[in-house]
Amino acid sequence: MIALKNIHKIYNKDGVQTQALDGISLSIDKGEFLMILGQSGSGKTTLLNIMGMIDTPTSGDYSFQNRNMASLNLNELALFRRKEVGFVFQSFNLISDMKVIENVEAPLGYMRIKGKERHKRSLEVLKKVGIADKASRFPAQLSGGQQQRVAIARSLITAPSLILADEPTGNLDTNTTTEIMALLTEINKQGTTIVMITHNLDMLKFATRSLTIRDGNLT
Length: 219
What we know:
This protein is of the alpha/beta class. The chain has a single domain (about 30-55, about 75-215), classed as P-loop containing nucleotide triphosphate hydrolases (Rossmann fold). Helices cover about 35% and strands about 30% of the residues. It is built from 6 helices and 10 strands; from the N terminus they run βββαββαβαααβαβββ. The strands form 2 sheets. The chain has a 6-stranded mixed sheet with strand order 6-7-8-3-9-10, sandwiched between helices. It has a 4-stranded antiparallel sheet with strand order 2-1-4-5, with helices on one face. β1 and β2 (about 15-30) form a beta hairpin. The two termini are about 20 Å apart. The mean pLDDT is about 90.
């Protein structure tokens, strides 16, 4: 499903070069739940951003479902990303002045799907993550775990083939972490590929495969 070959990423700031990724090669099969462990500054978020087409490599090749991402222009890349990739972040990234259902609907708006259909699909996915009864509330009225469920619902709304999760349990307590990981595991069992980055070794039990990134290299 995903093939990264000899990926390098170098950032230039004020004349100083920082190498975030140092020749990473990685293949990910459809249906995997891949966990990538690494400390702060190891390059794990940079790797995730390249997989999600938010960032581009300095050199190397990235193919997704046998399509070379470098061959797509910016518009094609944006459309491909919206359809195929869902994102879940540590800080939830919900829009505070929008209701839960409006947050979940937002990606469909970019795809020009009409209001009634957006509403219908959003309710369905909110039911899937067990939070449909909170559809009319605002994010600030929810617990951290509930907000993360909303974020997961938003990531699922376009029926993506891949979910990228960046420390999705980093702001949650132990019990809520277990609930969220159980939810992600169930989503994975239904066929969605998940790549999650974390620094927490306790997360390994949920993965089908795990790798460690250190100083921009995978082990």
